[in-house]
Amino acid sequence: MDRLLVLVRHGQSEWNLKNLFTGWRDVGLTDQGVIEAKAAGQKLKGENLTFGTCFTSALVRAQRTLDLMLEELGQTGLPITRDEALNERDYGDLSGLNKDDARAKWGEEQVHIWRRSYATQPPGGESLRDTGARVWPYYIHRIQPHVMRGEGVLIAAHGNSLRALIMALDGLTPDEVVKLELPTGLPILYRLNEDTSVAERRELAV
């Protein structure tokens, strides 16, 4: 049985391009983001992968990325579950601010801690640990059963929600996960063993 799970961070968003903290703000893809999403779909098609169900966040940049990938795969019409559990980390009061402006206001070191620490929350927002606290149970109860039944699962989500999920799948420590960089539009392929551990992990460079 092929217990397939593929994770893809959404293509470049309008606010990625503008260097703004995005979080739960709903912004679309740039032209480059559309290209990245289509390229991810083409890469998955080149691997001859077949999916049975899909998951994405409640945010349009991830949903649009998923739709574009499925069009390239020729697998439109699959069941798609959209849930806030897979949303990007909530940056709270930083949302909508330019990262350089935030550094000028709070200082380089403080902004770096908010962006890259595991457990420190920005004002009014979530830490990476908080993000994981909603992602992990959602994966175990809602996503993993589909993978284990061999249905083939494709997830389009966000840098930090996927970082939290990869932390669990790869057994990363808090220090390791905060150093993990996830490029936009890069598919990461997992195959699981019968005991839900990881049998294979492969990045599909596009």
Commentary on this structure:
- The protein has 206 residues and is of the alpha/beta class.
- It has a single domain (7-32, 45-159, 171-203), classed as Phosphoglycerate mutase-like (Rossmann fold, 3-Layer(aba) Sandwich).
- The chain has helices at 14-17, 31-46, 60-73, 99-106, 108-116, 128-148, 159-170, 174-177, and strands at residues 4-9, 53-56, 80-82, 153-157, 187-192, 198-203.
- A 6-stranded mixed beta sheet has the order 3-2-4-1-5-6, sandwiched between helices.
- Helix 3 links the parallel strand 2 (53-56) and strand 3 (80-82).
- The model has no long low-confidence stretch (mean pLDDT 96).
Low-confidence stretches: none
CATH architecture classification: 3-Layer(aba) Sandwich
| The first-level CATH class name | Alpha Beta
What would the CATH topology be? Rossmann fold
Oligomeric state, counting identical vs distinct chains: single chain
Strand content: 5-15%
Order of helices and strands: EHHEHEHHHEHHEE
- How many domain units? 1
How is the largest sheet built, in terms of strand order? 3-2-4-1-5-6
Main beta sheet strand tally, sense and closure: 6 strands, mixed
Active site: 10, 88
Pathway: Carbohydrate degradation; glycolysis; pyruvate from D-glyceraldehyde 3-phosphate: step 3/5
GO molecular function, one term: phosphoglycerate mutase activity
Protein name: 2,3-bisphosphoglycerate-dependent phosphoglycerate mutase
